């Protein structure tokens, strides 16, 4: 490596997958901006026709909706802050953990969603600089509290580790704005090099990167916390929904082709036979067409067979995408035993359940790092309250349960329990009390 801004091979290797994820999460506009990368131009297609086709293409948002749905499952209920979290942290830090108005639950939800999309996401823990504040004791006296910065994986340029695999250096891209003129601003590129106990800041000069700041940090480790959802190594990962992303990109191409076919087939073609060149033919509601003997005039229309086949292929692809997303909450049958039929076991044996457990450990590590800025050993723990039910639409499955009950294959008490589990009945309603109320009110 010759410059501080050069991307390491390990960081560059993840670029292609992220480009596809970025385009899909950008929606229709993002895919249109990607142009021929994900919607190739046909060999004989003119630039004008391709531009028109691209302008009509719309994205089926399978990837972005799956990420939102799975993130919603993990954060179905607020995070539980443990009693062992220091009071100063619970009162001063967690309600506005990034100094941008996001509390821990909201920040963690956005952090997890980014990690689910890319397979990895990062957080930096920093503390504001204040006059005379040099040590952790000074921070406590001045009430200077730490905060976190969410770092997208694209901003990590490279890193180093020691023989034991511990992180010893990481380079991160930043930007800062400074006033320009009376109303404008200009953006200055920065690269910060974090090392144990030290951070250097470089800015882009006219011909090279120039160091503009070099400060010490009161920590025994680099203040970077990484959340993985599909780890492959130190600070490397692959998107856990990558195959879904490929299917989504395929759907984008097929949808565009089918839409173009429908648009073309919607215009019938008038075919005329037996008319000599130069003969005038007027087509209209108040005009008659004079044809020579043996001449014919008819519309040629598409049979629609290809359109129907295209639509069926799109539906099959949409079903495949739904199944690819649903696999995150399906228990691993290869490792599941007879004693793992409880809700906790389902949580541990599904891919999303494993991600949820890793997320809890990572957030606890984040709290410990925040505490280290104040010279404390532990930041306490938090616990997620996810909804990892395999049934993606639990309310809709009530019809199946009602049919089983009416057919004598399910008891009233089990039906009531399933209704309660789906949140359709309040948690404090007891079945025995409810059965007495039903008996007292008589037949409906």
Task: Specify Rg, calculated over alpha carbons.
Answer: 31 Å
Count the beta strands.
14
Task: Classify the secondary structure makeup into a structural class.
Answer: alpha+beta
Mean pLDDT: 85
Q: What are the secondary-structure elements, in order, as H or E?
A: HHHHHEHHEHEEEEEEEEEHEEHHHEHHH
- Helices, by number, come to 15
- Given the C-alpha coordinates, what overall shape results? flat
The number of domains is: 2
What does the main sheet amount to?
A: 5 strands, antiparallel
Q: Bin the strand percentage.
A: 15-25%
Poorly predicted ranges (pLDDT <50, ≥5 residues)?
A: 335-346
Report, as a whole number of angstroms, the end-to-end distance: 79 Å
Can you give the helix content as a percent range? 40-55%
Neighbour order of strands in the largest sheet: 4-5-6-7-8
Summarize the structure.
Helices cover 41% and strands 20% of the residues.
Explain how this protein is built.
It is built from 15 helices and 14 strands. The chain is an alpha+beta fold and 444 residues long. The chain has two domains: 1-153 and 228-262 and 305-392, no CATH class; 393-441, no CATH class. Helix 5 (62-74) packs parallel to helix 10 (305-326). The longest helix is centred in the middle third of the chain and has 24 residues, at 242-265. Residues 335-346 have low confidence and may be disordered.
What features would you highlight for this structure?
444 residues, alpha+beta, three-stranded antiparallel β-sheet, 15 helices, flat
